[in-house]
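Archive entry. Fields below.
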Amino acid sequence: MSSKISESYDQLMARYKQLTVIRVASGILNWDLETKIPPKGVEQRSEQLALLDVIAHRELVDPKVNELLGSIEKGLSKSKFDDVQKRNVQLMRKYYDEEARIPDELVSEMSRQAAITVNVWKKAKAAKDYSIFKPDLQKTIELKKRAAGILMDVKGTKNEYDALLDAFEPGMTAAKVTEVFDGMRNGLMAIMKKIESSDVKPDTSIITKRVSVEDQKKISLMVMDFLGFDTTSPESGARLDETEHPFSTGYYDDLRITTHYHVNNFASSMFSVLHETGHSIYEGYQRQDWKYLPVGAAASYGIHESQSRFVENIVGRSPEFLGYALPNLKKVTSGALKGVRLDDFIAAVNKVAPSKIRIEADEVTYGLHIIIRFEMERDIFAGKLSVDELPQAWNERYERYLGVKIKNDSEGVMQDTHWAGGSFGYFPSYALGNLYGGMFLQKMNKDVPDWKDSVSKGNFMPVKMWLRDNIHMKGNMYDPADLIKVVTGKKLDVKPFISYLDEKMGVIYDY
Amino acid sequence: MSSKISESYDQLMARYKQLTVIRVASGILNWDLETKIPPKGVEQRSEQLALLDVIAHRELVDPKVNELLGSIEKGLSKSKFDDVQKRNVQLMRKYYDEEARIPDELVSEMSRQAAITVNVWKKAKAAKDYSIFKPDLQKTIELKKRAAGILMDVKGTKNEYDALLDAFEPGMTAAKVTEVFDGMRNGLMAIMKKIESSDVKPDTSIITKRVSVEDQKKISLMVMDFLGFDTTSPESGARLDETEHPFSTGYYDDLRITTHYHVNNFASSMFSVLHETGHSIYEGYQRQDWKYLPVGAAASYGIHESQSRFVENIVGRSPEFLGYALPNLKKVTSGALKGVRLDDFIAAVNKVAPSKIRIEADEVTYGLHIIIRFEMERDIFAGKLSVDELPQAWNERYERYLGVKIKNDSEGVMQDTHWAGGSFGYFPSYALGNLYGGMFLQKMNKDVPDWKDSVSKGNFMPVKMWLRDNIHMKGNMYDPADLIKVVTGKKLDVKPFISYLDEKMGVIYDY
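PREDICTED_STRUCTURE:
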């Protein structure tokens, strides 16, 4: 019995490895699609990616997987399986159930519709005409509701939207998000109010000074060197390339990040590199002995985002890092930053101002952009908000939470691609990443009290090791709520993030 | 019945499409492995490539494929299938039989051994010690003999080596190759003799003048522009990158070539770009309506090589192209070629001299390098030549055919990777490519008598269109011998190639 169960387990893990190898290969083909492919090759590539998806899907929903799972689960209580093995089985069960229960016909219909809706969204956005987008958005939502209905049964969630949330943030619920986001909104709006009353007006002309692409590449190297992210040595396991929208991808020994150089905004690429490297360090610091196992992966989208934002904001926008960086920036920017004072630089890259566009938002107002999207998603799937009402609901909330007037739907409800692609339940991860980051920071402050000193001297190692030991090397052993508990000893709480922001902004805005 | 057979046919072609999509994806992952991968990622990649191989193999040897083939073949005589459909079925039958009959265990053993032998070969070559290489070469040959024994049955060839040849040059036999290579050897040695007696001694210092990598990139663009190979426009379906050894890969709308820039040999990259683009044009000019069908592919390795060599040598080393190129080269090489006379340039890039290394050989002696390898392969698989005897057999032939003394096995029998990787039967394709090219040239001279005029004015279109109509768009409709017949009306013959060379060298060497 014991040998049979461990044989089944090995077979199950071999199956997971196959799945992963296919998906990692897909990831590289996707990276090539974004970075290197000649324009004519795009259609050919989409056929390759679609087929690899089908192959991975087939591998996962093969009845053999269910059989193996069944035979393992039957003997699990009497087995000598350790927690890692148990978690691997639990995750495989979840992956199998979720993917096997959605009918193939619905899977392909969703992916077909997503391609159409994204295409229509592009046109509608260019034409600033929501009515072009609406019918296909409606279809996308209907398909997603069907899938969510099925997943709700599989996962045993309370409602459909919770089932969608769970795909990005396992175990998270709309009720919980509502609760923490309410607290976050109050906290952020209070900080905004203080900033609005402040006399300090950061001068952002510092970051719009012309810096050539060549010099910005040196900034990227400087930043990656600080982070200990090696893209150049003969032992390197990473690359840096250029794309319109920065992203990161990769697995263990082959990590790839991208950035975009704007000659009139060197800070944009500098913080992109910090952000994307934060993601990649998380992937690259998974435990080697967990490679190709379910536990050898990120815990959730929110935890992933916590790592990128930790590096970008908590470290990258800290006075200590900026103090270390500025002299180096001056060295490599051919005089563009001559005479810039550190205080002005810190204020410029931390400037807070309500805006219409999420991806351009600062650290304080960013969360409000997310809350708006979350509330609307939640209401759509609760049947409280129709596709007809979306633009108005959007615009009202932007006025209420951020005090900005949306002039057209392209800068409003159509600004992001997520809903067009059917990714409902994704947005909350971004803000949860900030909240998790705040909690991690609070704990790290206790564990490594002198980390700021180190960073100010250009030494990121103490922070990196803390993140590695506490988060990266725990892989997917825990659902996010449990991981937070294990790392910090506490439940999800908005206060650490709000305090961190309030304190930093208090110094910058002198309130 | 008729509808059932066409249904089976459609299913069979859908299966071939899947196979092709997977292989094209693999091709890109291989390209990435050679060009972009961070060093640490290599092992991860080899797992991806191995798995995709297994998946493609499974798709092909699925009993369902045999069933579909069987049901189609039964009704084929009474069907309304056209020649293209019939050829598609015939090719699928061949692919299925060949791959299904080799036991999985032997397939994986061969690929495992190939990886080992290539690795050992690298070490042995570095150490100039054949004894390190010998045991694994022996194992590789034994495995290959087992596979060849099975393939001989499947294909119905006369001997094992013919079965290996057929994988690269369908329908070709050792007897036929021996016959044409004997003729080729006599022809080439006669030309060599005339050149040796000539007083003309080309000055190759012209091509070793220092040209920066940047300037050489401009040469690449000039060459690709001449060939109408677009790597830069928004409609481009191709890329050019750098690797240590130039190669080409790709499928239809996504073609990729690489080159290597040596600052002291601009001609090396210039002719590499001509050669690899020749390959890629062949791939890119397959018929659009044959995409993802067995007929929508190259006819053989030899025909592929005929296209690359046609572009590199027959066009690229012609006085007419060189006359067009030289002023352009002068423009982009920052004065490096100032004062170079056209006649001297033509002589330099066409210089003939016996050498030890195949890949550095000129147009005349190249064939002799191939003959040596062919004769030895043939004798190994006929049991007439043992692994112990290889170095001596190699060195003797190099002295006899080329008049050069091999000093060690690294510049001798271990210079190429082919045998280490198990690619026996591959070498003849290179020289057959030259012979095919000679025959194509003879026919093109009749069909497009003024092609040299066009080329001298920088217009490659008449040649390109002739190659497209006569070879590229015929895809894999014919085995090479039949294709030659269809295009030229003649059987394989060495004379056209020898005459072409003799004539060109006669002018250059003034004999």
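CURATOR_NOTE: Chain A has 20 helices and three strands.
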